[in-house]
Amino acid sequence: MKILEFDYQNVPIINEDIALCLGYFDAVHLGHQEIIRKAFSSGYKVAIMSFDNPPVVVLKKRKENISLTSNADKAELFSDLGIDYFYILHFDEEVSKLTRYEFIDLILKKINPKVIFCGEDYTFGNNAQGNVSYLKQYFNVEVVNLLMDGDKKVSSREIISLLKEKKVEKASSLLNRNFRICGYVITGQHRGKNIGFPTANLQLDFPYIVPGEGVYMGFATYDNTRYKAIISIGTHPTIMPLSKAIIEVHIIDFDKEIYNELLFVEFVSFIRDNIRFPSIDALAEQLKKD
Question: From start to end of 187-261, where are the E strands?
Fold first, then answer.
């Protein structure tokens, strides 16, 4: 897969017939995967155009700068799905002010796709004035119906809500994979190690949404090897409580020192809430059960 990072004044030209998928594609969830699947049925090479910055953050429609996937995550997922080109448009306030026609004229016409695939709720241009009906005036457009989960559409917003509610299994079912974050291992206070359960303290390398506080079963991947793990998100209330929640990962059957190394962490299921134990021994006993 070829990654093309660009700004709207320097659109890269590909001399190849492509089917272009439009959207932000945070999470690359089942709804996004359906758009991609339909694009492959076109018979053309498949490209995706997304943004480097979340529009909802740039436009101040969401207070928290959080996302489900980084562009590096998206690139990995798109490559696994067989995408040929990944366009990443620099999105800032200037781009947000482009009219719907300017977005088409300055960007989409230069990419010149044979066909465009997008969800029925796709919008673009200043104040989201462009929609699929407007897009059809200029391009061959295949509109993909929203994918529903009961009475709710499958969306990044819904997945974020599920993760905050600690419903990681349900969130993963909408992603078609385990929810994953990554970051660098930093030095902690070694309190877990002192009771026989050393943990890797994770400093995120991207503003990921983090599941609600508690203890989870999951996996940790280090140096391309995947290990079973117990993940704790919280202030460890039994041992010198902290003022802010941290992410601690106990990697099972693992004894390497990996400070400053990159660690990928997957969430499989929620085990329990964090509670204050009456003693360190009681905490250690619970960790064995976990």
Answer: 200-204, 214-222, 225-234, 246-251
